[in-house]
Amino acid sequence: MKRRDSIKTIILSSIGASLTLEGCISPLNENVSEKIWEYRYGRTPYEKERDKKFLNAQFFNKSELRTIERIANIIIPPNEFGNINDAGVVEMIEFIAKDWSTPAHNNYGENVLRKGLIVLDNLFENKFNNKLTDCSDDQIKSIFDIISYNDGIEENLKEAASFFATYRYMVVTGWFTSEVGMRDLGYKGNIPNVWDGVPEDVLKDHDVSYDEEWIAKCIDQSKRNETAVWDEEGNLLT
Amino acid sequence: MEIKKSKEKYDVIIVGSGAAGGITTKILTDAGLKVALIEAGPYFDPADPEQQTQFKPTWASPRRGSSVTRRFGDFHMSYGDWKVDGEPYSSKEDTDFMWWRSRMLGGRTNHWGRIASRLGPKDFKCKDFYDLDENWPITYEDIKPYYDKLDKLIGVFGTKENLPNDPDGFFLPPPKPRLHELYYIKGAKKSGINVIPSRLSVLTKRINNQRGICMFCGQCERSCSVYACFSSSSSLVIPSLKGGLVDLYTDSMVRKVNTDNNGIATGVSFINKKNGKEYSIKSKVIVLGASSCSSARILLNSKSNEHPNGLGNSSGLIGKYLQDTVGTSKQIFVPELMNRKTYNEDGVGGAHVYTPWWLHDKKLDFPIGYHIETSYRNLGMPQFGIGGYIPNDFNKFFGLRVGGYGEQIRKDVKKYWGSTIALESRGGAIPDINNYCEIDENKKDKYGIPVLKFNYKWADTEYNQAKHAQDIYEELAHNMNGIMIGDKPGKDQNYGISTPGSIIHEVGTTRMGNNPNTSVVNKYERLHDVDNVYVVDAGPFVFKGDKNPTWTIMALAWRTSDHIISELKKQNL
After folding, report:
1. C-alpha closest to that of B519 among B543, B550, B501, B554
2. Is residue B563 part of a domain?
3. Mean pLDDT taken over chain B
4. B156 in any annotated domain
5. Which residue ranges in chain A fall short of pLDDT 50?
6. Distance CA B62, CA A90 (A)
7. Looking at the complex, does the CB of residue B387 fall below 8 Å from at least one CB of chain A?
8. What's the pLDDT at A8?
9. Residue A72 counted as domain residue
10. To 5 degrees, how large is the angle CA B61–CA B65–CA B66?
11. Which residues 391-410 in chain B show a CB within 8 A of chain A?
12. Pick from B237, B203, B348: which is nearest to A227 by CA?
């Protein structure tokens, strides 16, 4: 694809809000009452407690989880980098169902994620007389081929299309924010390194270059460890 | 409530451990003074593995970094945001104000953008140059030596540019621009708009043996575990604690400054958040660095027979002249940035380039200019929401179908990843006595302390400034062969102007001046009404132009600290 063409309009949605938890989330009835803390990163005591509570509670039942897994595998099929389970996509959606079960999120778990599964399941029930999980891949794709596009959606499929878009958003996010998904994407950072500019071949490909006068003022990375000393006019001497 | 009194008397009590409190603590304890430092939040050290979020991958978060408990995402290093549990505030009828608080050692310096700009000579002479009501009582020349000392002590990268109102300093060398920044430079050039290397408080080069050098993870907002970017916690307070002259009180909310029968300040009362008990401690001098609005709140809540309107408020001006930065932003889709070859482009945690205000001599329908900042995480670590709600929505620009699933969606996410540039204007606000915060007599926070009520409206000329910025974005989008995403906000959308407070640059609530009738503190940030109380945060700002306030807060606080040391030596306090 050439780096030139023309365009129109769009709005990127963003999500954010916070409030206290509310709702109908049942604690796990398993003997192991505390899920091992696999998520290790700086949390405040309040945040830690909140997360622990959700990690030790269950929102979706097993059948719902199987449905999510099936949908996810079709939205982002496995490739050489891994699959939906490797990416923890279903766990993420299960967590978010609880995390967003607040009035601020309009009880997103119940009103959107669970309701979405019901709407999608009904669609397959009506069309194939089967639950989504009992349909073949071809059957599922024949429906997704319709409801996954914005254009030409019939009125009676609009709700299903909107819930499909929600699950696609969750699955795409879950995949590309996972270890395997980031490898798939080609993200190469989050490690200590020394930035020394855009690679030469990339500059060439994009037909841009560094201005010599500009670059002359930039950090000489071979001298980064020498302590800075200036003259009285503020000229760096080291 | 039981009130516990400490017998010990400090030389100085400092309220707040952010930019202002941090530098004041360092300068005063270096001079051998005994200091009590009071912080409303917990102890925080970015090097503490229990608190660290730097270098944690997105999948370490069960919510993949989404912003449920932290407004700017799960890894962002601010305990508290525009909402703090149990600490409400309100706005008057048809106005809206957003008030950010970071309750932690180091305060907001743990998460700030590290933009370390100096106010220029014109910003101090704002009455003369911008036709505002007052000039600062000090000039750029008065404060320049302190900016210089700060540059050397704390570190800032940048370049000498000899611009009329963006003074140069003692700079470390900047990092090279990223790819999309080269597109921005090229696009700006076509319109004759200047672009220069950013000026950020990030160590691209060693300045001492206490702090590390930038590892280019692009995560300054998570606070740096090797102290390569400046935070008051890592770079000022924690080193100062080692000297043994600081008693640090964390989780302590100051209720008021106490005064004696002569109206002289004797110390402060605070509530220990852990046990709910109130304590009072004494000192010769009290320094407020709690942030512009928090310090105003403390003073207004410090009423006594001698100071019936609140401490230092004989002018009635505490809380008045509140200013935030005027902002408006736009995302631009640049098709030439599609299908990028990926490589590690994290860089520092901020844009490597920016546009300082460039139309000084042009007659416009607004008096004060703005600078333009650009996005920087274009190839950054994916966070919750990557790809947007509809990952290939940009397809519509090419007449392609929008939507789908499977391999096609996977390909489209990769195709569009890193192809947008966000532009954000940051402009000067007009000091206005009608923009203010005051005590809401009917409401208390969970510690029983009366809370703030805000009243803030943008002026017509500030809307004009935002309109001008949007026009420039359109021009720049065109120059980059790109397109603005979403409609260009017109008059009906107020040109996309930011909600007051949302840029998190509140200044001006304890105005500096020579005349006690028209200002709250003198040119050394000392209350006109009370000799031994100082305000060292952004409260004393008369005006800040388009500049980010942190560097000026610290330069002024350093100057005030020198003044306090000298006054104590002369036994004037």
Report:
1. B543
2. yes
3. 97
4. no
5. 1-24, 29-33, 36
6. 11
7. yes
8. 30
9. yes
10. 125
11. 391, 393-394, 396-398, 401-407, 409-410
12. B203
Q: Is residue B573 part of a domain?
A: yes
Q: Name the residue among B427, B479, B465 with its Cα closest to residue B188.
A: B479
In contact, B367 and B445? CB cutoff 8 Å: no
Output the domain CATH number for residue B32.
3.50.50.60
Instruction: Tally the domains of chain A.
Output: 1
Whether A109 contacts A97, CB under 8 Å: yes
Cβ separation of B218 and A75 shorter than 8 Å?
A: no
Q: Is there a contact between A100 and B68 (Cβ–Cβ < 8 Å)?
A: yes
Tell whether A181 is covered by a domain. Answer: yes
Q: For chain B (length 573 residues), average pLDDT per consecutive 10?
A: 72 98 98 98 96 96 95 97 96 96 98 98 97 97 98 98 97 98 98 98 97 97 98 98 96 98 97 96 98 98 97 98 98 97 98 97 95 96 94 95 97 97 98 98 96 98 98 98 96 98 98 98 98 98 98 98 97 89
Question: pTM value?
Answer: 0.94
φ, ψ dihedrals at B278, nearest 5°: -100, 140
Q: Say how far apart CA A39 and CA A60 lie, in whole Å.
A: 21
Cross-chain Cβ contact B206/A7 below 8 Å: no
Domain that holds residue B36: 1-46+65-81+102-133+230-315+517-573
Q: Which pair of structure tokens corresponds to residue B132? A: 């505002």
| List of chain B residues whose C-beta atoms are within 8 Å of the C-beta of residue A191 | 55, 217, 344
Residues from chain A contacting residue B338 (CB–CB below 8 Å): 1, 3
Structural domain for A78, as ranges: 26-185
Strands B450-455 and B265-272: what pairing? unpaired
User: For residue B534, is it within any domain?
Assistant: yes
Q: How many domains does chain B have?
A: 1
pLDDT of residue A16: 30
- Res A6: pLDDT: 31
| Tokens encoding B190 | 């076509």
Does the distance separating the beta carbons of A189 and B381 come in below 8 Å? Answer: yes
In a domain, A91, yes or no: yes
Contact B382 A177 (CB under 8 A): yes
Please report, for residues A196, B127, B165, B351, B364, the alpha-carbon distance to residue B359 in angstroms, rounded to integers and kept in the order given. 32, 18, 11, 22, 9
In a domain, A2, yes or no: no
Q: Where do we find the tokens 């966000």?
A: B422
| Chains A & B: contacts with CB separation below 8 Å | 312
**Residue B298: strand, helix, or coil:** helix
Chain A contact probe: residue of B176, B195, B207 with most A CBs at under 10 A: B176
> What pLDDT was estimated at residue A13?
26
Residue B532 neighbours by CB under 8 Å, 6+ apart: B264, B265, B284, B285, B286, B573
Cα angle B414, A165, A123 (rounded to 5 degrees) comes to: 135
Give which of A173, A193, A238 to mutate to test B binding, by max B Cβ within 10 Å: A173
In which residue are the tokens 């709140």 written? B297
Whether B481 has its CB under 8 Å from any CB of chain A: the answer is yes
